Amino acid sequence: MQTILVTGGTGTIGRTLIPFLQKNNYKVIILTRSLEDKPYENVEYALWNIKNKTINVEAMQRADYIIHLAGAGVVDHKWTKEYKRTIVESRTESSALLVDTLRNNKNEVKAIVSASAIGYYGPDTMPGKAYTEDDPAGNDFLATTCKLWEESIEKAKVLGIRVCTIRTGIVLSAKGGALPEFGKSLKFGIASILGSGKQMVSWIHVMDHCRILLQAIEHSNMEGAYNSVAPQPVTNKHLTTTLARIRKGSFYAPMHVPAFVLKLIMGERSQEILKSTTVSSTKIRDSGFTFIHPTLQSALQAEEKKD
Predict the structure, then answer these.
(1) CA-CA distance, 175 to 197, in Å (whole number)?
(2) Measured CA distances, 53 to 12, 225, 299 (Å)
(3) Scanning 7, 26, 79, 125, which has the fewest C-beta atoms within 10 Å of its C-beta?
(4) 171 CB contacts (<8 Å, ≥6 apart)?
(5) Distance between CA atoms of 136 and 139, rounded to whole angstroms?
(6) 55-72 pLDDT, tens per residue?
(7) Which residues of 93-115 are buried (b: 16+ CB within 10 A; e: fewer)?
(8) Helix, strand or coil for residue 136?
């Protein structure tokens, strides 16, 4: 049984990923800041502290692979100067700690699969053109963050370790993230369309995303960046009204939330839900990956059964 060391394993993605890895006969060790929170059974927990640059070296030495998901939430807090620094450093400094530990200690790690995000590309610049992995990074805050994030973990390549970065779209999961936020107003029969609603959303069902992470572990030819997005990006309006129809049938009222209101409430963060980002899934499909949930309808219905 091979061992995967996971960072950020207690977040939204981890809640689906950890049981999925176990079902596929992997032993899992989760790097955590506290041993008090142990949400999974038959999982080993090991301490690390990014700020203090400490880590359980012995746990890393038993790992065959690393899945690196750690990073502060992007829309969880107001984007103060201090919190923006936290967003960046939680990613780059955690990567640096992993790479430094691997450099300075004997290990058997064959590959690192690291999270990134489609924020790497910035907003759409050409209508109808989807970003591919060959496109350069954008210039806004999240694009710069993602670029630094990827560069920080790619330093492991000089150690002879294969590195694969997964640029993740909007993950649809009933266990957290964007989907519960989209559904909040539906409790009152209102489908809240954000801004114009025309902005493109490149999404991925959480199980398909976990399957991509595992494929990146198991396929030794996967290296560099891959987009983790479904084949059919949709508009914000289409996503919101599709969810509304699944939950409410025809008993809902669509309502636009003006962009200026979102900007007043969310400040700079609002640009992330108002911008359009159309991203291609061609490269991951060409690798042999087949989506369980290629359509939005299928993805949302699967999560409604869990809710």
Answers:
(1) 24
(2) 25, 27, 39
(3) 125
(4) 12, 13, 177, 178, 203, 204, 205, 206, 209
(5) 10
(6) 999 999 999 999 999 999
(7) ebbbbbbebbeeeebebebbbbb
(8) coil
Closest CA to 19 of 172, 180, 214: 214
Query: Which pLDDT value is given to residue 127?
Result: 84
Give the whole-angstrom CA distance, residue 78 versus residue 88: 14
Angle at 137 between CA 81 and CA 205, to 5 degrees: 90
Q: How many helices (H) and strands (E) does the chain have?
A: 11, 15
Token code pair at residue 107: 């290990």
Sheet holding 203-205, edge to edge: 176-177, 170-173, 203-205
| Pairing verdict, β 65-68 and 111-117 | parallel
**Which tokens in the block code for residue 161?**
């370790």
- The rounded distance, in Å, linking the Cα atoms of 6 and 18 is 9
> Token pair of 274, please?
């108002």
Is residue 68 within 8 A of residue 216, CB to CB? The reply is no
Element (H, E) at 143: helix 141-154
Quote the pLDDT of residue 128: 85
Radius of gyration (C-alpha) of the chain in whole angstroms: 19
Residues in the chain: 307
Instruction: Return the ∠ at Cα 89 (arms to 200 and 220), rounded to 5°.
Output: 70
Q: Which residues pair with 7 in a beta bridge?
A: 31, 68
Give the E-state strand segments of the chain in sequence order.
3-7, 27-32, 44-49, 54-55, 65-68, 111-117, 162-168, 170-173, 176-177, 190-194, 200-201, 203-205, 224-228, 234-235, 253-257
Residues 4-52: tens digit of each pLDDT: 999 999 999 999 999 999 999 999 999 999 988 889 989 999 999 999 9
Which residues, 6+ apart, have CB-to-CB distance to 64 below 8 Å?
2, 3, 4, 108, 109, 110
